[in-house]
């Protein structure tokens, strides 16, 4: 498996404050990784560091072998890193279709293909971002990232605040994406068991540091460690 | 589909209004060409404010630059209108490109100050360079040639009106395509959430620089058009008043809609013409009142109010149908 992304002893945060410390991580092509940990341990900050949206204090970031540590955020996105942010950030004046055409780049993921993946988006093509339900907004956020045709998709709490039926629907979609292995994924998720079932590899963070990196299935089977790191009852 | 067809019909009807005015109101062609030119100028501000979210109180700087560029060319013997128009646009675009690096850096207040500063700087520079610009007396001796070597500018203002209308329509079509392209959509995204746009691949600064430069170019074309059709360039073409009035027109018509710029310019100029006729001293009082009423009772300007009324009508007719 060719290496796609490599973080080398990355220390990052906001301004002078440090949130992520000495994080090292390698992601291979088509690999699906669950990034787990309690609230506030630095998972979102780690994803934002990959996107170039935080202050990098130390370390290096490599993408397909090239150094992207100093690369601007938009250039990283254009290089093939797709981001589905926690807050989804819809544009209230743009329609669903405009959300997609605005960012679409050539590749296998076209507007038609994401509409087939999320038929509800096709039905609401003319609706504005702010008029969508939470679940539809999340579908649009994922679809918008997909039409940029990324090599790596970063998903930050994609199931947060969604109704169980929507979680089920999205889980199926993510399982399909992970199973196809045409693009790598890092999924930050509070529902650890759900994330572990979707991915091959699990990375756990505690107090800004990566404390575990191993197969998802093994962690899913190890109740004691799950409880220790994630306080799963 | 029928809504789309209805929208197209309204658009066609909208563009037939100035043509009807040409035929039915021959005595108002001078005012008509001024409205068309100011509408073009307002479109340029709509691109940078309504779409890209860059507030400006110095947009007249580019209008004036375009006016002086075309006016000076004609005064020095190059009276060919289309190349003069192009020259006005290019000069203003160059100035806009340079200024954009200062403008896009800051937030709203900083942008207001920087654009205001650029406007004042150019105004004073033009005032000082009286040997070139005519200073407070303005630039005269602007002698225009025929458009396409055929259509001469006439005293009645027919050629000026149709020329202004054609330029406005062409620029409008260009802007309509631009604002609905991925570039234009991303400008709206940047206006709403500039901090998150880079993470989905939009180079915010580059997009804003491009939008500002295009806006400046269009303002320059509008200025050049005014210089060519009036055959005079006054210092006021660069002045603060022109920038401030332009902002009022855009807010009045409705920002981020393109048509709002045209409607706002037309309503403002017709009101100005009428009110200054009724009361030459206090006419600005009524204009101010009109603006306050619109800001409080018609959010989104005239077109915003029309849109809201159409929605309400649509809803109530649907309810009646049930």
Short summary of the structure?
Chain A is an alpha/beta fold.
Structure explained in plain terms:
The complex is a heterodimer of chains A (233) and B (322). Chain A has a domain at 1-80 and 152-161 and 190-233: Rossmann fold. Chain A is 37% helix and 29% strand. Chain A is built from 10 helices and 10 strands. The termini of chain A are far apart. Chain B has 322 residues and is mainly alpha-helical. Chain B is built from 13 helices and no strands. The mean pLDDT of chain B is 93. The chains are: A alpha/beta (233), B mainly alpha (322). The A-B interface holds A 51-53, 72-75, 77-78, 83, 85, 89, 91-94, 98, 101-105, 144-145, 148 and B 182, 185-186, 188-189, 192-193, 196-204, 256.
List the helices and strands and how they pair.
The complex is a heterodimer of chains A (233) and B (322).
Chain A (H helix, E strand, L loop, with lengths): L2 E12 L2 E12 L3 E5 L6 H9 L3 E9 L2 E2 L5 H7 L1 E4 L11 H8 L7 H7 L1 H5 L10 H13 L5 E5 L7 H17 L3 E5 L3 H7 L2 E6 L2 E7 H6 L1 H8 L3
Parallel strand pairs in A: 3-8, 3-9, 6-7, 7-8
Antiparallel strand pairs in A: 1-2, 1-4, 4-5, 9-10
Chain B lengths: L1 H23 L4 H23 L8 H16 L5 H23 L4 H21 L1 H4 L24 H23 L1 H11 L11 H27 L9 H14 L5 H20 L4 H15 L3 H21 L1
Question: What descriptors fit this protein?
Answer:
heterodimer; A: 233 residues; alpha/beta; Rossmann fold; 6-stranded mixed sheet; 4-stranded antiparallel sheet; 10 helices; 37% helix; B: 322 residues; mainly alpha; 0% strand
Mean pLDDT of chain B comes to: 93
What is the fourth-level CATH superfamily of the domain at 1-80 and 152-161 and 190-233 in chain A? P-loop containing nucleotide triphosphate hydrolases
* Uncertain runs of chain B: none
| Separation, N- and C-terminal Cα atoms of chain A | 35 Å
SSE string of chain B, helix = H, strand = E? HHHHHHHHHHHHH
Number of continuous helical runs of chain A: 10
The main pleated sheet of chain B reads as:
none
Strand content of chain B: under 5%
Alpha-carbon Rg of chain A, integer: 17 Å
Which pair of chains has the greatest number of interface residues, and how are they split between the two chains? A-B, 25 and 17 residues
Structural class given helices, strands, pairing of chain A? alpha/beta
CATH class of the domain at 1-80 and 152-161 and 190-233 in chain A: Alpha Beta
The fraction of residues assigned to DSSP E strands of chain A is: 25-35%
CATH architecture of the domain at 1-80 and 152-161 and 190-233 in chain A: 3-Layer(aba) Sandwich
Give the averaged pLDDT of chain A, no decimals: 93
**Residues in helices of chain A, as a percent range:** 25-40%
> Assembly state here?
heterodimer
CATH topology of the domain at 1-80 and 152-161 and 190-233 in chain A: Rossmann fold
């Amino acid at each position: 498996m060719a290496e796609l992304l490599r973080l080398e002893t990355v220390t990052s945060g906001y301004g002078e404050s440090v949130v992520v410390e000495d994080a090292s991580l390698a992601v291979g092509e088509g690999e699906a990784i669950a990034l787990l940990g309690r609230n506030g341990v630095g998972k979102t900050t780690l994803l934002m560091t990959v996107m170039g949206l935080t202050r990098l204090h130390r370390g290096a970031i490599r993408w397909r072998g090239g150094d992207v540590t100093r690369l601007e955020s938009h250039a990283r996105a254009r290089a093939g890193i797709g981001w589905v942010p926690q807050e989804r950030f819809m544009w209230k004046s743009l329609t669903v279709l405009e959300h997609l055409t605005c960012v679409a780049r050539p590749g296998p993921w076209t507007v038609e293909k994401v509409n087939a993946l999320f038929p509800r988006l096709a039905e609401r093509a003319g609706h504005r971002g702010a008029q969508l339900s939470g679940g539809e907004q999340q579908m649009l956020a994922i679809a918008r990232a997909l039409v940029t045709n990324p090599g790596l998709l970063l998903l930050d709490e994609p199931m947060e605040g969604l109704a169980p039926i929507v979680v089920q629907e999205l889980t199926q979609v993510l399982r399909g994406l992970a199973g196809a292995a045409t693009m790598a994924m890092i999924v930050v998720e509070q529902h650890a068991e759900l994330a572990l079932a979707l991915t091959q590899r699990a990375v756990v963070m505690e107090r800004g540091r990566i404390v575990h990196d191993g197969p998802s299935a093994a962690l899913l089977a190890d109740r004691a460690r799950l409880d220790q790191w994630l306080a799963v009852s | 589909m029928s809504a789309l067809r209805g929208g197209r019909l309204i658009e066609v009807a909208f563009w037939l209004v100035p043509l009807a005015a040409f035929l039915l109101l021959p005595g108002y062609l001078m005012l008509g060409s001024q409205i068309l030119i100011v509408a073009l100028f307002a479109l340029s501000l709509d691109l940078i404010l309504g779409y890209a979210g860059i507030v400006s109180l110095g947009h007249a700087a580019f209008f004036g630059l375009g006016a002086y560029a075309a006016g000076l060319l004609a005064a020095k013997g190059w009276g060919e209108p289309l190349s003069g128009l192009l020259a006005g646009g290019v000069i203003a675009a160059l100035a806009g490109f340079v200024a954009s690096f200062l403008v896009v850096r800051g937030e709203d207040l900083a942008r207001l100050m920087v654009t205001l500063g650029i406007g004042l700087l150019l105004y004073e520079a033009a005032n000082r360079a009286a040997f070139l610009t005519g200073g407070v007396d303005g630039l005269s001796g602007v002698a225009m040639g025929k458009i396409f070597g055929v259509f001469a500018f006439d005293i009645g203002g027919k050629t000026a009106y149709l020329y202004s209308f054609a330029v406005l329509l062409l620029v409008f079509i260009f802007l309509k395509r631009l604002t609905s392209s991925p570039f234009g959509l991303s400008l709206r995204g940047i206006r709403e959430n500039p901090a998150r746009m880079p993470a989905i691949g939009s180079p915010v600064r580059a997009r804003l620089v491009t939008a500002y430069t295009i806006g400046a170019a269009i303002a320059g074309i509008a200025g050049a058009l005014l210089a060519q059709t009036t055959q005079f360039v006054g210092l006021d073409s660069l002045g603060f008043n022109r920038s401030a009035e332009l902002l009022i027109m855009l807010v009045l018509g409705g920002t981020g809609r393109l048509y709002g710029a045209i409607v706002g310019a037309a309503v403002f100029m017709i009101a100005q013409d009428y009110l200054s006729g009724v009361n030459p001293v206090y006419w600005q009082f009524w204009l101010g009142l009109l603006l306050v009423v619109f800001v409080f009772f018609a959010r989104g300007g005239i077109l915003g109010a029309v849109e809201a009324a159409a929605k309400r009508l649509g809803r109530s007719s649907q309810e009646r149908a049930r």
